Amino acid sequence: MTQPTPPPLHPQHTALSLAESGVPVLPLRRGKVPFGNCPSCADNACGGRPNMKSAGPCRCPGVCHAWAAATTDPAVIASPSWTTAWRRAVSVAYHPGGAGLTVVDLDDADAIAWARTALPATRTVETTRGEHWIYRGTMGSSNAVRPGVDIKSTMAYARWLGPGTGTMTALPDAVRALAVKEPPMVQPMPQAVAVPTRSGNGECPHRTPAYLDRGIAMAEQRITEASSAVHATVYRTFLAVLSTHGRCGCLTDAHTARLFTAAQAKGETPRHCTDAWTNARTRLGL
After folding, report:
1. pLDDT of residue 182
2. Helix (H, G, I), strand (E, B) or coil at 162
3. Alpha carbons 238 and 226: distance in angstroms, whole number
C-alpha cells in the first residue's frame, strides 16, 4: 500500500531544525519579505539594525530587523513575539553569510544556462523560477550582477527551499568577480605625461625609504584588512599606488611583488592581480 505523504512542517518547526544545525533563520510574511519594524524601531529610533542595511546595538526581542534578526537561538525562535510572527509567516528565510555560505540566485533559464558554463558545479536548490547555487564561503551581497543573477551572502537573506542536491563546493573566484564593479578603462590622452620634478642631486624624491616604504606598507595593510569587496579594494589600492609612484620610476619588481603577495593572501589569483594592475595603469595613462 502506498504510504501517504507526510504534511509539510510548520515554518517554526523548520526554523528550529535549521537553527539546530547552525543556520540563522527568520520568518517571511506574504510576498517573501521580512516583517516590518515595530513602532519602537521604526525609522531607526532604536539606534541600530534598521531594515537590512546594518547590524547595530538594538536588542529588540521582535523579529523586525530582516537579515539582522536571523538567529540560531531556539529560545528566541520560540519566544512569544516570534511565535506570533510564525503564525503569520508563509515561509522560512536564512542568513547565508551567518551560516558561512553564499547563494547565487539564478532567476530564469537563461541565467541557469550561463551558470552551467561559467561557474563550477555545487549544491543546487530549485526555486519558483530558477535555481539557487550554494557555495561554501562568504562575500558581500550584490543584486543584478548580471541579467537574472543576484548574490546573497552577508547582510542578506534567502528563502529556505530545502537542502538541495549535489556536493557543496568552495566559493570560487568567478563568483567573487561578479560583484566587482571596476571603473571602465580610460584610453590615455594624446599628450605628454607629467613627470615629478627631481631633486637637485638627480634622484627622484620618492626614492627616500621613509616615503616609498611607508606607502607600500600602507597599501599592503589596506589590502590585508579588507573584510569584503576584496577585488575592488585591490584595484583601488593599485590605482592609488600607481597614481603616486607610477610615473617617476620609483616602483621596482620587489614593490609590485609585495602588493601582489598581499592580494593573493586574501584569495586573489595571479591573473586577477595582473588584470587589476593593468587596468589601473590604463586608467592613469601609464
Report:
1. 53
2. coil
3. 14
